[in-house]
Amino acid sequence: MSGPVRAGDGPGTGWDLHEYRHSGLSHLGEQGASLLMLMAKSRHKKPENVRRYFKPSPEAIAEVTSLLAPGAARR
Question: For residue 63, what are the CA distances in angstroms to 2, 7, 60, 68?
Fold first, then answer.
């Protein structure tokens, strides 16, 4: 029985294509892509489906949390 389709079956990360989809959407979201853009990129019709793919990194969460700190610069 064969496993999932792998991106580059040789040396590398061993991530499958579905994991790259999660990673790509997370990076786009961390860079400020809107929900509508993430939906367009992933071709999802429902926001709740995109939410399953968007997994912000601990660093991204810390960065957005720092905006709440006293003295944080306002944009």
Answer: 41, 31, 5, 10
